[in-house]
Design goal:
two-stranded antiparallel ribbon
Length: about 375
């Protein structure tokens, strides 16, 4: 099974622009490729701050219990409505609240929307729309921001079509732990995602090693009588990013990076896993940050990362002399963040800030923007 490198490929034309992806560890690269920079592993095997397996298991179970309790928390008393007409309603969802009920039928934003706007108000004889027919898209429970709901079934279906055809534009803001490299301002994270066979039902980056492991797990389950389980293919996943600011918290100077994230694809937990895989998890992420139930660093914590910076035809020696390390947050810093800003207690710093689509009836382009409140959290 080939090992892989997490490669930050720097653009020769666009300054401070990167394309981040996985490549097999072969030692050879495309002779026409741009200079590359690959991250070094942050396993810190000799780090005195390393967490023992027992402590990690305890922290994860505690985090899981806190997350389950949060689902039972109080719903907001009022609905933050950004826009409403006879066909649709756009709301600003707070973090920590479900979009839809889930398997335990917990309270959710959909309940409030349906209670107030269930069906079009254009006619007194309009049959109220069922809740499930109002759902256009979802945000994770811990993600805040803009959501659109249909008030007529035909409107919901039309918006579904726009999502399928990638006609709806979405933009997110996030605070991540640590400072991203100063030479990396914009770019694309191109890492395939799939369900995590070790930590279901969460997501992870798919590597040759994880794919082989998942295949073995599937065989074991089928031998044990679970014949209906089938292996799901990893899905191509891309996220465009722009670094907006690098700062520190006002009281204890913990470093963070404020980034704009634009999903090209729309996979489950895509933005959260992509940030975690780079080593810069989203502040307050209860699943993919330190002590979370998901695989550490998006499933890449055990991958051997090399460090190399080279132009097209440089020799191996020249590459070694031109090393450049991506400074990922240390385990000590991650612990300090976990103590300062506790997931499940404080909101996750991921906010759906922009939403743009064509109105199914008027054909007018509607654009909405709600700024995050990250400054008030820190």
């Amino acid at each position: 099974i080939p090992l892989v490198d997490l490669v930050w490929k720097r653009d020769d034309v666009m300054e401070n622009h990167c394309h981040i992806s996985l490549v097999e560890q072969s030692g050879d690269h495309d002779e026409h490729s741009s200079p590359i920079v690959a991250t070094i592993s942050s396993d810190n095997l000799d780090d005195p701050e390393k967490i023992s397996p027992a402590a990690l298991q305890f922290e994860r179970q505690l985090r899981k219990a806190q997350h389950e309790n949060k689902k039972l928390g109080q719903m907001p008393e009022t609905l933050d409505v950004v826009y409403v007409d006879d066909d649709l309603v756009v709301v600003n969802k707070p973090g920590g609240v479900l979009t839809v009920p889930g398997i335990n039928q917990n309270g959710c934003i959909l309940d409030l929307v349906h209670e107030i706007y269930g069906g079009s108000s254009s006619s007194a004889t309009t049959t109220p729309l069922s809740k499930e027919h109002m759902i256009v898209h979802r945000l994770d429970m811990d993600t805040s921001g803009l959501l659109v709901f249909g008030r007529r079934l035909c409107i919901t279906k039309a918006l579904h079509t726009q999502f399928r055809e990638h006609c709806i534009q979405k933009e997110y803001r996030a605070l991540t732990v640590g400072h991203w490299p100063s030479w990396c301002q914009t770019g694309t994270i191109d890492l395939p995602l799939k369900r995590d066979h070790e930590c279901p039902p969460f997501m992870r980056v798919a590597t040759p090693h994880s794919e082989a492991q998942a295949h073995q797990v599937l065989q074991d389950l089928q031998k044990a009588g679970w014949k209906k389980f089938v292996k799901q293919k990893a899905k191509c996943s891309q996220t465009n990013f722009q670094v907006l600011d690098r700062g520190t918290t006002p009281h204890n100077n913990l470093p963070y990076t404020h980034v704009r994230l634009t999903p090209v694809t729309g996979r489950t937990h895509q933005l959260r896993v992509h940030c975690a895989a780079l080593g810069f998890s989203i502040v307050g992420d209860p699943t993919y940050s330190l002590y979370g139930e998901g695989s550490p660093e998006g499933g890449l914590e055990k991958v051997e990362h090399i460090v190399a910076t080279a132009s097209t035809a440089e020799s191996t020696t020249a590459v070694a002399l031109a090393q450049q390390v991506v400074p990922q947050p240390s385990l000590k810093l991650q612990k300090e963040w976990a103590n300062h800003y506790q997931p499940n207690v404080q909101p996750m710093c991921l906010h759906a800030t922009k939403l743009s689509f064509k109105h199914p009836t008027t054909k007018e382009t509607l654009s909405f923007e709600v700024e995050p409140c990250f400054d008030t959290y820190l």
